[in-house]
Task: structure prediction
Amino acid sequence: MHIHFLQNKEIDKARWDDVIRNSSNGLIYGWSIYLDHLCPGWSALVNDDYSLLMPLTHRKKFGITYLYQPPFCQQLGIFGTAVITETVVADFITACKKHFSFGEIFINHANGGSGQESVAACKNYILRLQNGYDDIKKDYTVSLQKNSLNRIKKFDLQYVLGNDVEKVINFSKQLYGQRVPHVTDNDYETFIKLCVQLYNMGYAFTREVKLPDGELLASGVFLKDEKRIYNLISATPPNGRIFEANHLLFDRLIQEFAGTGLVLDFEGSDIPGIAHFYRKFGAINEPYYFLKWNELPWPARLVKK
Result:
C-alpha cells in the first residue's frame, strides 16, 4: 500500500468528505469544514484511491512542527471505506513519524490500540437509538428512573428547542472554562464560528431545560451527522444541579431521537463521576486511544516531553 502525504492545498476536499461520510467509522471531527476551522492548514495521509484517510493536525513551536489534538476535536486517526486492519493503522502511524518527529494525538475507536508502545485507552460512552424510547428506557438505572426522573416531574421543567449556539458555548465557558486552561479565548471564538456555520447548515442544534418562569437550568450544543448526535458542549448552573436538570435534558433528547438509528455520542469521560452519569442512561464504553511519540533529536527531545 502506498501512503501519500498531502499538503492542505493538495487535498480534494469534496472527495475527502464523501469518504468520511461513507466510512463505517466516519466522525464529524474529520469533515474538512471542521478541520479548516479548528486547524487551518491541516495536512493528510491518503492511500492511492482515497479509500483510507488520516487528517494531520499540526502546529509549530520553538521551530518544531508536531502533531497535536485541537480543542473540541475528540478523536481523529484513520478513516476509510476500506477495511482498517492493525497493519493499516501501523503503516499510517509509521508514515506520520516520517513527517512529524513528535506527536500527541487521539485516534478513533476503529483504530484499536494501534500496536504502538505509547498508547492509552480513553473512555467514550455511546447509546444506540435504534429502538423506541420505552425500550431504551428499560436500560436506565433504577436510580435514574425512580429517583431522578420521577422527582423532576413535580417541577414541571420545560424542554426547549434553542437557537443560539453562541449563547450556550459562552455559558459553558463561563461555568467551566477554568477547568480547561489550555483552551484559549481564541479557541472558543473559532469554535463558535464553526458551530454557527454548522447550525446554519443543519448539522448543529441546541436544547435547553428551563423552569416555568424561564430560568435556564441546563443547555447543550449538539452536532448531528448521518450517524451520530454528538454531545459537544453543555452547561448546568448550580441551581440546575439542584433540580437535576441535566438528567431531564438527556432523557428528553433520547426520547426525541429514539428510533432514528442514530448513536448518541456522550463524548467521554475518564472522569468517574461523569462516566457514572452517562452509564445511568444505559450507555456503553466505545474507547478511543491516545497516542504519543517523541523521536526528536537531543536536546529538542527534552523540550517536548
